[in-house]
Amino acid sequence: MSKAIRFSRTGGPEVLELVDVDVGAPGPGEATVRHEAIGVNFIDIYFRTGLYPQALPSGLGQEGAGTVEAVGEGVTHVKVGDRVAYAARPNGAYAQARNVPAGILVVLPDNIGFETAAAAMLQGMTVQYLLHRTAHLKPGDTVLWHAAAGGVGLIACQWAKVLGVNLIGTVSSEEKAALAIEHGAAHVINYKRENFAEKVRELTNGEGVSVVYDSIGKDTFTGSLDCLKPLGLMVSFGNASGPVPAFAPSELQSRGSLFLTRPTLVHYVARREDLEATARSLFGVIASGEVKVAINQRYRLQDAGHAHTDLESRKTTGSSILLPH
């Protein structure tokens, strides 16, 4: 038996329950992973609240790291005893052990620990594709990144600096501003004290930025568009404040023929070769020390609801993980 978090109705953190589950033998193409650490991400809240619909009852969580305990028929790229990690669907990572499609697993290098992997796979691979593939950035470019002191944001601050990209970050407190600067942000805007769109124009001498990376959604979308230079790219990759309302495409034209994309990690790592290349790129910058993963919150598996409360109330910085044992 394994302990796991399940929920049978959508709602607040109180809907999350710790239950006993029978993992069973892995089916064809599956592997059984015994978790050592589990990532907590804002997308988990989207599923818990019903913003992202799914069949219920359900597990939760899309990111974990641990050891392969068994493999099903046809599995060849991982074996029993391998240290592995994964990110993206299917949900169910909030568990001591689970069966997963083996195709989502990557073998961890010896110099990447379980906690680092669980904290970095989803967030780090997200930053990798956003900086390297969604936008074609070059040294000297200036971008805006919302929530710069969060788990994704702190990785982005460091990785942008490695690429020679000037990252302007937004944060909600002076403490978070200092954290973002410490991790490589070129400038930081406290959106509770300043109008971030006006400040971006000031920092760029009226030109605007090449790309805006916005995981906030409803509250920042229009202001984010106002930060872009003509032909700039708006990357909307999250809904922390709620989904973006419908808008007329002419809003993009009137601001300078802007581009808009709504990407997700699942599509960028759908092919095995893309998954391995993305993970290899992430592990490389972590191993080199160029990007450090800040695990600033650790919770017991049974305290997953507490982790969600802290994340939703913006009490957290860096990455959060669950420890299942």
Automatic annotation (TrEMBL):
EC number of the protein: 1.6.5.5
MF terms in GO: mRNA 3'-UTR AU-rich region binding; NADPH binding; quinone reductase (NADPH) activity; zinc ion binding
GO cellular component terms listed in the entry, alphabetical order: cytosol
Family annotation (SUPFAM superfamilies): GroES-like, NAD(P)-binding Rossmann-fold domains
Occurrences of domain Enoyl reductase (ER) (ranges): 11-322
Pfam family, one: ADH_N
Enzyme type, top EC level: oxidoreductase
Sorted UniProt keywords: NADP, Oxidoreductase
PANTHER family in UniProt: QUINONE OXIDOREDUCTASE PIG3-RELATED, QUINONE OXIDOREDUCTASE-RELATED
Protein name, UniProt field: NADPH:quinone reductase
Gene: qor-1
